[in-house]
Design goal:
Shape: elongated
Strand order of the largest sheet: 5-6-7
Helix content: 40-55%
Number of helices: 9
Structural class: alpha/beta
Number of strands: 10
Length: about 325
């Protein structure tokens, strides 16, 4: 699906994460994870080409809207599992679906509990405050980011039709007791979310995808492809098929001020990573040298061919202007034979 009114156009892909059956939910995280990985792999393969494809389309996912069911009990186990899995691949923006079924007090309660769970389980969703670090002096933008961060998760109401309200056309949902304008900030965060995705934070979402998420994926992917490396890709289907009995998630160890993680061999890990990066740079330099050499050889052959064609043209003109030269050439060939 493409949002035509947006510039540049925004593509929307919808994944039905939950399928309801008789005795519960079936969760297929691997399908979505593999889809996002494939977009990264396509870009990585294009970057590795000696000659780039000018028509290549970058289909990386820059934002993932995760719809949370408001239960007044916070996040469910599958919510935590899925967002933790996807947080290293894509910018996650949590939203509350069908928020029109909640009262204002219930909506505020669910937002509060959901954000507390996200903080407790250390789920790295998209951080609007992080976008304010490079905007010193722009108080309006800083205030906007603070407002958006406090608004999370966004409350979403689906519009079923466009109605005439007070002489204005509005996107609204009709109920027996009245209508709800989905763009009314008192009840819905649709307008704020729309601005985030199409205008105010579109560039930052793309930058964070390319410079942070993709670079981390690229480094990990290339390091695993080196000789002697061991692949540690988890079996997503095996992980998600475990018992759904809820288990508290342990808080991960955070890096210290020096950037190292307690309890890990940081020196050897850093040295190994630097060595791999150096090896990759050397291989890229070799490829560039080969490409330059091939281009020089092609250019040399082209020059030789043009020179040969020019000689033939000169000889042809000479024969046209001096017929005796042809006789002399034929006589010379007969004597030689």
């Amino acid at each position: 699906m493409v949002c035509d009114h947006a510039s540049p156009p925004i593509f929307l892909t919808i994944f039905p994460l939950v399928h309801y059956i008789n005795f519960g939910d079936i969760y297929s995280f691997s399908e979505i994870s593999n889809y996002i990985d494939k977009q990264f792999d396509d870009v990585l393969a294009e970057e590795s080409r000696i000659k780039r494809n000018p028509r290549f389309t970058d289909n990386r996912v820059h934002a993932l809207l995760y719809f949370i069911v408001a239960t007044s009990h916070g996040l469910r186990e599958q919510d935590v599992e899925f967002m933790k899995l996807m947080s290293t691949k894509v910018n996650i923006i949590p939203v509350i679906s069908k928020s029109d079924t909640l009262t204002i007090d219930e909506l505020e309660l669910n937002k509060k509990i959901i954000m507390e769970d996200i903080k407790y389980y250390n789920i790295p969703i998209y951080n609007f405050l992080g976008d304010s670090e490079g905007s010193e002096g722009d108080e309006e933008y800083t205030e906007l980011n603070s407002y958006l961060q406090e608004t999370l998760p966004f409350a979403i109401i689906g519009a079923s039709e466009i109605l005439d309200v007070g002489g204005q056309k509005v996107q609204a949902r009709r109920f027996p007791w009245g209508i709800v304008d989905v763009n009314d900030n008192k009840y819905s965060d649709v307008s704020a979310l729309r601005e985030v995705l199409t205008r105010t934070h579109l560039s930052d979402l793309k930058d964070n995808t390319h410079f942070v998420l993709y670079e981390n994926y690229r480094t990990d992917k290339l390091s695993k492809d080196l000789p002697g490396s061991v692949s540690a890709t988890p079996n997503l289907d095996a992980e998600t098929s475990k018992s759904h009995q809820f288990q508290p998630y342990p808080m991960p160890r955070m890096p210290s001020a020096t950037g190292t993680i307690p309890g890990t061999d940081s020196d050897s890990g850093t040295t190994s990573l630097l060595a791999r990066e150096e090896h990759l740079r050397a291989e890229e330099e070799k490829l560039r040298q080969i490409e330059v050499k091939v281009q020089n050889e092609i250019a040399q052959k082209r020059r030789e061919l043009l020179a040969r064609e020019q000689e033939l043209k000169d000889l042809e003109n000479k024969l046209k202007n001096d017929p005796d030269a042809l006789k002399y050439t034929s006589s010379f060939r007969s004597e030689t034979a």
